[in-house]
Each structure stands twice: as structure tokens, then as C-alpha cells.
């Protein structure tokens, strides 16, 4: 049933796997650079991409297809925050274009449930795009100081004395 939909859903999973792996990679590098805001955004969005994989996979199984868990590309070893955001916005932009195309294809072959699934995921990808785009704008507006401030917040937290265990 709906062989074409299964093919499109597997292509979408490959894109999600790429974004998921890339965002987790960005997350731990931002964390390593003490960039708390960026690190959290990448982590949260990676989790959402994982949920997209799950939603697409559930639909494939419902259609009696096989789930291919392969990323469309390898992780790119980008560690500069501005470059990370550039890549992330591009990934989201590409996903939005692709899923719109897939939704139309599903409509053409009469699979309205998969079409709606793509449409609901597009709405979330648009929010991801917005998250990344806002962060890019902040860096452009405030310059490197925006990133330096995040590191300073972390440093401040490190400076707070921790409660000590009472010695008996
Ligand atoms: Fe996604
Ligand atoms: Fe996304």
C-alpha cells in the first residue's frame, strides 16, 4: 500500500537522521565552549528531529514498509558557532522545501494521511529555522560579545560556592 509514500518517508528519515546527528554534534561542541543558549537549542532541536524519525517510521510500518535508518550525509566537523548556525538554517530550509514537495506528491497519489504528517512536521521545521535564524541575527547584531556573554554566565555559575558535605 502506498509504495511511493514509503519511499518518500524513508528519504525524509535520512534527512532527519542527518539533522539529528549534526545537532547533537553541535550541542556538545557548544557545551564545550560554554555556550549554554546555543547548546540547549541544538539539544532540544535534535530531540525533536528524533521524534520526527519516530513519527515517519511509525507511518512506514503502518503502510507495511521497511524503515531504512541511514543518514543522508556524514556529520560535518564544524565547531565555529556562526558556521554551525549557517548549516542548521540551511538544513531546516532544505527540509521545508523537500517536505512541501513530498506533501504534494502524497496528495497526487491519494495518501492524505502521509500528506498531513509532512505538513505537521513542516510547521515544526519552520520553528527550528526561526530558532537558528534568531541566534544568527543576535550574533550579527551584538557581535562576538553575544557569545562571550554566554561563556561569562557559565563562568559565573562556576564561581558560586557549592554546599560542602558536613564532616562528622
Ligand atoms: Fe525534522
Ligand atoms: Fe528541524
From TrEMBL:
UniProt domain Ferritin-like diiron: residue ranges: 1-143
EC numbers: 1.16.3.1
Protein origin, superkingdom: Bacteria
Catalyzed chemical reaction(s): 4 Fe(2+) + O2 + 4 H(+) = 4 Fe(3+) + 2 H2O
Binding site for heme b: 50
Top-level class of the enzyme under EC nomenclature: oxidoreductase
Binding site for Fe cation 2: 49, 92, 125, 128
Biological processes annotated in GO: intracellular iron ion homeostasis; iron ion transport
Key words, A-Z: Heme, Iron, Iron storage, Metal-binding
PROSITE patterns: FERRITIN_LIKE
Gene3D superfamilies: 1.20.1260.10
Membership in a protein family: Belongs to the bacterioferritin family.
Job description of the protein: Iron-storage protein, whose ferroxidase center binds Fe(2+), oxidizes it using dioxygen to Fe(3+), and participates in the subsequent Fe(3+) oxide mineral core formation within the central cavity of the BFR protein shell.
Protein name from the UniProt record: Bacterioferritin
Native organism: Calditerrivibrio nitroreducens (strain DSM 19672 / NBRC 101217 / Yu37-1)
Amino acid at each position: 500500500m502506498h509504495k511511493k509514500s514509503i519511499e518518500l518517508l524513508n528519504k525524509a528519515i535520512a534527512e532527519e537522521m542527518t539533522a539529528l546527528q549534526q545537532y547533537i554534534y553541535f550541542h556538545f561542541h557548544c557545551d564545550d565552549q560554554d555556550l549554554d543558549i546555543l547548546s540547549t537549542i541544538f539539544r532540544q532541536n535534535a530531540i525533536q528531529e528524533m521524534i520526527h524519525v519516530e513519527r515517519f517510521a511509525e507511518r512506514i510500518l503502518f503502510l507495511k514498509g521497511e524503515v531504512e535508518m541511514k543518514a543522508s550525509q556524514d556529520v560535518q566537523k564544524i565547531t565555529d558557532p556562526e558556521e554551525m548556525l549557517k548549516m542548521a538554517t540551511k538544513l531546516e530550509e532544505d527540509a521545508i522545501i523537500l517536505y512541501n514537495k513530498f506533501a504534494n506528491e502524497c496528495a497526487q497519489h491519494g495518501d492524505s494521511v502521509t500528506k498531513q504528517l509532512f505538513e505537521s512536521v513542516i510547521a515544526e521545521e519552520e520553528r527550528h529555522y526561526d530558532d537558528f535564524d534568531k541566534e544568527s541575527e543576535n550574533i550579527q547584531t551584538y557581535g562576538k560579545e553575544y557569545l562571550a556573554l554566554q561563556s561569562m554566565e557559565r563562568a559565573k555559575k562556576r564561581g558560586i560556592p557549592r554546599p560542602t558535605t558536613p564532616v562528622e
